[in-house]
Each structure stands twice: as structure tokens, then as C-alpha cells.
Specification:
The chain is mainly alpha-helical. It is about 55% helix and about 0% strand. It has one domain.
Amino acid sequence: MGMGEVTAFSGMVPGNGQAHTRVRGVGRPSTVAQFSPHITQWLQDHPAMSGAEVLRRVRLVGYRGGKSALYELVRRLRLAIAN
């Protein structure tokens, strides 16, 4: 395998000796991401809302995913709202 083939296969871009890689999505698509607008609105309206309350509400609107993914999204949204 030549350098061009390695470059094409790996997604690396040759240039000044530094490796540049393409960003690619790894793993399954997020099931919680589609509920982000709802959660953002709830957190803006009620900043002290607990993660458990967010989970209860998002399950009522159709979320069937896990708690960990939801709590991570809530954490990131709280940080984004605070900034």
C-alpha cells in the first residue's frame, strides 16, 4: 500500500508533516438529541429543575433512551445556558 492509498484510507491529509483527520461520527445516532429543544426550553423556564424531572417530562413526550445519555445532555445544556 503506497502513501497515497494510506492517506485516502485513513482520511489524513498530507502537507506540512502534521496529521489532519476528518471528523466522523462514531457509534449509533443519538436518541436524545432530538429532544434537545424541549429540554433547553424547560431549563430556561426553570433553571433549578432536577435531572429526574427532566427525565420524567421527556419520557412523557416520547423519549425511550437511557438516563445516562439524558443526564449528559442536560449537563451540557445547563453549561450552554449559563454561558
